[in-house]
Each structure stands twice: as C-alpha cells, then as structure tokens.
Write a structure and sequence with these properties.
Number of domains: 2
Largest sheet: 4 strands, mixed
Number of strands: 13
Order of helices and strands: HEEEEEEEEEEEHHHHHEEHHHHHHH
Structural class: alpha+beta
Helix content: 55-70%
Strand content: 5-15%
Strand order of the largest sheet: 3-2-11-8
Shape: globular
Distance between the termini: 51 Å
Length: 437
C-alpha cells in the first residue's frame, strides 16, 4: 500500500530523476532582462565533460574528453561518466543564444567530483546582456559595500533559520526530545507548497498557507501516532532521539523517491530583479521585504502567545513540570500536540522562504539542519527569543564569512562563532544557568 501511494506521488511530482547513475547534470536557465520576469530554459546549449585534476574545486588540469550533450527543451543536460572521479565541466559559449551570457567568464569550466550511483549537479549562471553586466559590476564592488549587502542577506537568511529553529526549540522545551527528523518537516513544507503552486496552480501565498496547515497536521500525526505511545511506555529520551534519526533517514529517501534528484523553483516570485527600494548599497526586493515582515511578525506572535495567552501559559507550565501541570488540570497530551503543530507549521513557512531565495530539493532539510541546531544551541535550548537571536547571529556570520573564505566554507564561520560564544556563555544567549552535580 505504501509503495503504491509513493508511486502515485512520484508520478504527480514528475517521476523519478531524468538521469540515473554516475554522471554530470545541470539545468540551464537564463535570468531575463525584463523586470519581474521568470527565468526561462535554453535549448541546444552544449556541455562538455573532460577528465581532470581539481583541487578545492579549482581546475588544475584538463584531460581527455569524456562526453558531451546538449540541453533539451527544459534546459536539462546529462552527461554520463564511466566512473567516480574528478571531472571538468565546460559550457560551450558558442552554443548560447544571442543576447545570453555567462555572468562570470572565469567559471566557464567547473571542477566537480562525480558521486557513486547518482548524478552530480553543476550550475552555470546565465543572464541576458544587461543583467549579466549588472551582476559583474556588483561582484567588483568594494569591501564595505559587499559587507553591507552580505549583512542584509545574512539577516534575511537568519530569519528563515529562525522560523525553523523556533519550532525545534519549542518541541525540546516541552518534551525534552532532540528531534533530528525536524529537517524533514522543512522538506515536507517545501514539497507541499511546491505541489499546490507548481502542480495544482495555486498562487504561492495560498500554497504556503496550505503547507502551513498540512505540515502542522503532519507534526500532530507524528506525535499522536509515534511519540505519544513512546512516552506512555516510558521510552527514554536517548532512545527517542535515535528513533528520530531513523525517521529522518526514512523520510529523506522517501522524499527523494517522490521528488527526484533535481532542484526546482516555485512558479511564483522565484525570480525578481527590480528592487522595491534601496538602502544605500542594499537593494531590497519586494519578496524579501514581505519575507522579513512576515517572519518577524510570526516570531513575535509566537513569543507573545507564549507569554499572554492561556494556551501559551499552559505550554510553559508543561515545559517546566509536566507532572505538576497535569495535576493542576492541564491536558498535557493536547498541549504537546499543539506544540508539534506550531513547530512543524512554522518550519513550513521557513521552507517556502528558503525556496524563494534558492531552490527546493530533497536535501533542503539536511542542508539546514546543522544551522538550525547551531542557532538553537547558541540562543539557548528551549527558548523562543534565544532561537531567534541565535539564528540571526548564525545567518550574519555565514554570509560575512564569504568575504574572507571560499563560499564552500561559509558555514564554518557560523560554527566557529557558536563555539566561541558558548565558551563564554555555555547556556547560550538567552539560556538559563543550570547547576550540575
């Protein structure tokens, strides 16, 4: 029965990956010059793959040709490779349509490591002439100009992490469970929004509301069907944490089967190039302003609800002492299920916002999980404002790190910042000191 449902879902989302086995794949899409227009695919553009020697993704030597292929009507290209190893992927500039350019000419050749039994993705940044020139001009800006833009992007990214981190922090505060399957709430929220937006045809705003509800209900279903019975049996938190790891792995590959390997954008608001206004060197896009406002309002609403509403006070009581809360007439199971709904639902909104800044894939949750844990730990486990503050700090450090190191190492700066702050304040920014022993 489960396999039948999965097969039907996979067909709905577009089937399994277009390419299987070891190989190099990419989807060539062009950023148009028209303001507000969506990216469009380019057909008949050639990709050539060579054997190569690479070091830290830098091309050291180009060897014999392995294969070549041209993009289809969707801009998709796949070149099989004979074995796992290092390869150089080259975009044939002569096959680009008139008016389309590679934004950075120095990235015409990319070094990659082919992975076993699955395609390896590469990305070429293509744009129409004026947009490409503007992108090149921005990349040559001074240090402080780039720092200002990166700080803005870090705050935006931090708010996205915060929407995911607050849910994890609330669940931990109420149940004591470190839920590693929280990463798959992120993927589920993104997939549901993608389904209603790209497949059903709903506007992304409606799709996000539906993802909010469905993902929240999924969280409640997991609590009622899995975590509550384990709690009733007296299962220890360590055992439940290991179960959450297994659940995360199962869901991750289930989503891979449904959604396939390729990353995909939402149909609405995915590409915006015309800023709504500028703050000095920082251009603020309409979707970014909406994301910032909505994220702040939701995070403040959660904090106020925990402090001012009857349900919020009951959540805090359960978090402090479940037995005492139950003896005072609070339905502990109902409160915990409410926390699971809120935590999963907030994560769905964060997933949609992340998809608007990049694209969504089956690995989106895994990519964000470490940062979410870092934010919660830095801010203080079990605190709402702590998760918010820790997320913003992590987001800013991630982006500012790219001023000094390669983009592939940008997460290192955030984790180093977390370690330094925790050495000075082990309980986190908003955590409470606890006496041990």
């Amino acid at each position: 029965m489960l396999l039948a449902v999965a097969a039907s879902a996979a067909a709905t989302f577009g089937g399994v990956a277009s390419a299987e086995g070891e190989g190099i794949q990419t989807t060539l899409r062009v950023t148009p010059a028209e303001d507000g227009a969506d990216k469009y695919p380019v057909e008949s553009v050639e990709i050539v793959v060579y054997e190569g020697v690479i070091e830290n993704r830098e091309v050291i030597e180009v060897g014999a040709e392995v294969g070549r292929a041209v993009s289809d009507a969707d801009g998709f290209v796949f070149v099989p490779v004979p074995q796992v190893g290092s390869y150089v992927v080259e975009l044939n500039l002569d096959t680009l349509p008139d008016g389309v350019e590679l934004v950075r000419a120095d990235l015409q050749q990319l070094g990659v490591e082919a992975r076993p039994n699955q395609p390896t993705n590469v990305l070429f940044n293509l744009a129409e002439g004026d947009v490409a020139a503007a992108a090149r001009e921005k990349s040559s800006d001074g240090f402080f100009t780039r720092a200002a833009r990166l700080t803005y992007q870090g705050i935006l990214f931090g708010l996205i992490i915060a929407l995911c981190a607050v849910g994890l922090s609330l669940i931990y505060a109420t149940t004591g469970l470190v839920n590693f399957a929280h990463s798959e709430f992120i993927v589920l929220g993104a997939l549901i929004a993608y389904f209603f937006n790209a497949k059903v045809g709903f506007n992304l705003i409606i799709a996000t509301i539906l993802a909010f509800i469905v993902t929240g209900l999924f969280g409640v279903g997991l609590d009622v069907g899995l975590w509550r019975p384990l709690r009733k049996r007296g299962t220890g938190l360590t055992a439940m944490m290991i179960i959450s790891l297994g659940l995360a792995i199962f869901l991750r590959y289930f989503f891979l089967y449904i959604f396939a390997e390729r990353s995909r954008p939402f149909d609405d608001y995915a590409v915006q190039t015309d800023p709504l206004f500028s703050l000095g060197p920082v251009d603020v896009l309409p979707k970014e302003l909406v994301m910032i406002i909505v994220a702040i309002l939701m995070l403040v609403a959660v904090a106020m609800a925990l402090r001012l509403t009857k349900l919020g006070k009951a959540m805090r009581a359960v978090a402090d002492n479940p037995d005492l809360a139950a003896s005072s007439g609070i339905d502990v199971d109902r409160i915990i299920s409410s926390v699971w709904f809120a935590g999963a639902a907030l994560t769905a909104v964060g997933a949609v916002f992340f998809g608007l800044t990049s694209q969504i894939s089956w690995l989106t949750g895994q990519q964000l999980l470490l940062l979410v844990f870092a934010a919660v730990t830095l801010g203080g486990l079990g605190t709402d404002f702590g998760a918010f503050a820790g997320s913003v700090v992590i987001g800013i450090f991630i982006y500012l790190t790219t001023l000094f190191v390669a983009p592939e190492l940008k997460n290192v700066g955030a984790l180093v910042a977390m370690i330094v702050i925790l050495m000075l304040r082990p309980q986190g920014i908003f955590g409470r000191r606890e006496r041990i022993g």
